[in-house]
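Support request, please re-run this one:
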Amino acid sequence: MAKPKSSRSARGPKIVAVPPGPKSKAALARKEKFITNGVRVALPIDVTWAEGPFVRDADGNVYVDLVGGIGVQTVGHRPPSIVRAAKDQLDRLTHVSFMVATYGPYLDLAERMADIAPPGLTKSIFLNSGSEAIENAVKVARVATKKAWLVSFKTAFHGRTLLDISLTGKEKPYREGFGPLVREVLLADYAYPYRDPEGRAPADVAKARVEELERLINVPEAAGRVAAILAEPVQGEGGMIVPPKEFFPLLRRLCDQYGIVLIDDEVQAGAGRTGKMWAIEHWNTVPDVLVSGKAIGGGLPFGGVTGKPSVMDAPGPASLGGTFGGNPVVCAAALKAVDEIEKALPGTKRLERQIRQRLDEMAESHECVGEARGIGAMWALEFVKDRRTKEPDADLARAVQLAGLKNGLMLLTAGFYNNCVRLLPPINIPLPLMDTALDLLGDSLDMALAGKGR
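Re-run finished. Output below.
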């Protein structure tokens, strides 16, 4: 089969067969026959090739990808330097396990993470996914504090292991039927100004949420026994919730006061996604432990935990690890991924201004948009049935997603109520192409509303 012509020269999407086309339908039929029903495919297409900001399906349709493998492809699909690094490493060493012997790519990446992490976070362990990294962050926090309880947020998402779903507040589809969950978990309200029941100013929302959190950690069964608070500096699956700037400094102060480890989950929001290497840098806060994943792997499976030596060195020898964690091919790719992210970061501010302006215009002209929000290249439209009551409209979000596909745009939904459409473009997407994508998003919203008779 001939290799598809490079789509880097393409000016935009191209739909030759209304999705799902016949080949994509055949792939979906195979999925139904051979893959567990527990795995849901959000977009009814079969992807065969991707490069930069473009994806091609089996029927020849080309899409602008605003999904990025759920936030993985921060600098687009298959950057040449990352591909070359992985191929070169395949010719030298594919696996030995860092628990057996050291090797250069793991050590090089650990040193690089110490350079780019917030100050004082100098020791790392590498795993196979963000979910696995969260597990290990909790393990080191519990050993370091000799405490058991954990605090997370109701609109958070921390992965799909049993511990991770215990830290995730959304019942369906993440928790339903999988209990009993980890008992020693407290779930608090995140600083989510749009849905503050009292309609307070953002700074007041931040203060109120941390005051509530302090009361929560002092309930009798957990008082004095909280090991860690886990927080995303921008909540991704929750619907791109950007907290008030006061929230994380107050959270840091609370953790210091009570001897609690602050675990910063940067799996989706980190590695350049928000316009800084780490999203928590926007909030002038240094965590005790930083969890990374997704974009750092450059398209290969990766999870990382980087933290202060006082926390990271608490577990005893051989208590942490994993057969494939820090695979040499992945680490080699990750080193180049960091380079590519750093090169692309300066352009993120222009991209942010462009997206903000266009989404604000959509919000102003459509009553169904409750809020447009985001930072860097991490954005969402939250859809509501009524702006006064803010009743979520998940059906409209799904309709916009499917209309987008017909327009040559790959989108995902998000939000605690599934009522958001999120945008995760590459941070190095050409601005004219992003403008085209935003035109298509507006068209898709109009198509969805017309389909609902609105």
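The first strand starts at residue 47 and ends at 51. The chain has 14 helices and 16 strands.
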